[in-house]
Automatic annotation (TrEMBL):
SMART domains: AAA. This is MoxR family ATPase. It comes from Tepidiforma flava. Residues 49-190 form the AAA+ ATPase domain. Pfam families: AAA_3, AAA_lid_2. Transmembrane segments: none annotated. The lineage of its organism: Bacteria, Bacillati, Chloroflexota, Tepidiformia, Tepidiformales.
């Protein structure tokens, strides 16, 4: 892509094409995941932003199934890593060994070198192993015994963790949580939705027959196009003000970082294009605040003692920041 085309704004036709592809992805995933359209759309936001996803909920709500459905909908290499306390960094990154036949050292890839990686129960691994994963997420490369290996493109980590069962776990520190673009919770389905799940899975899992609907180069092209989506200066400033307001909120010991501002900006563009628009509205940023900022702010001691809720506090912050008015 030349410089002239890079500076060109995303056209309505290009935005509509991305939306149409996203709708095919959504429909494919919904063959397996019932009643979670908002969660699926948020996962698509992460895909378009080339960002990583943290799924946090109790066991049995479909976290792993959602991750597998997304992976199978993409024509990408996929690896699942079951995180356990005895998992070593080399178990996921790979090792360098001496090949006697070749007479030289050879790097053997670990499961982390895949385009879509499901990091199951990431909080069960030790901090050292977590760091190996999160370094690859941030740097898009691995260094193993002096050998530097670039991660494949696209590179998406979908991590799951159970926030209830804490025995034998190693919670991710805030600096590492910040590497995830979005944190989502699936929640329990309603009565009708749960009955539909039984019907779909009665004979066999629909996951087994799921086929890819988009190839890796097309996903990379959509991500590149998204970077040309127009954001008006007042909306851009509004996104900055939202994050800065979390730093001024006394109930937060730590507010959103500049990385959080960039994440909200990127996610708002993706949400806009999923709606078929070639421009961002303040409502795009508003809707994403709980998912982009919820895991990036820390409650103060007093707020925790009073039983304050992060999402409720973020909603209050959003209400206090005036949104720009069109025209």
């Amino acid at each position: 892509m030349n410089e002239a085309s890079h500076d060109q704004r995303l056209s309505p036709a290009e935005a509509a094409a991305i939306r149409d592809t996203a709708e095919r992805l959504r429909a494919n995933v919904e063959r397996v995941i019932v009643g979670q359209r908002e969660v699926i759309d948020l996962a698509l936001v992460a895909l378009l932003c080339e960002g990583h996803l943290l799924l946090e909920d109790v066991p049995g709500t479909g976290k792993t199934t959602l991750a597998k459905a997304i992976a199978r909908s993409l024509d990408c290499s996929f690896k699942r890593i079951q995180f356990t306390p005895d998992l070593m960094p080399s178990d996921i990154t790979g090792i360098t060994y001496y090949n006697q036949k070749l007479g030289e050292f050879v790097f053997r890839e670990g499961p982390l070198l895949a385009q879509v990686v499901l990091a199951d129960e990431i909080n069960r691994a030790t901090p050292r192993t977590q760091s190996a994963l999160l370094e690859a997420m941030e740097e898009r490369q691995l260094t193993v015994e002096g050998t530097t290996v670039r991660m494949p493109a696209p590179f998406l980590v979908i991590a799951t963790q159970n926030p209830v069962e804490l025995e034998g776990t190693f919670p991710l520190p805030e600096a590492q949580l910040d590497r995830f673009l979005l944190r989502l919770r699936l929640g329990y389905p309603g009565e009708d939705e749960e009955d539909l799940i039984l019907q779909r899975f009665e004979a066999e899992s629909p996951l087994e027959s799921l086929r890819p609907v988009i190839e890796a180069p097309a996903l990379l092209e959509m991500a590149a196009q998204l970077r040309r989506l127009h954001v008006a200066p007042p909306v851009r400033r509004y996104i900055v003000q939202l994050v800065q307001a979390t730093r001024a909120e006394p109930a937060f010991e730590l507010g959103g970082s500049p990385r959080a501002t960039l994440a909200l900006f990127r996610a708002a563009r993706a949400r806009a294009v999923l709606e078929g628009r070639d421009y961002v509205l303040p409502d795009d940023a508003k809707a994403l605040v709980p998912y982009v900022l919820g895991h990036r702010v820390i409650l103060s001691t007093q707020a925790r003692l009073r039983g304050r809720d992060v999402e409720a506090l973020l909603a209050e912050v959003v209400e206090r920041v005036p949104a720009p008015i069109e025209g």
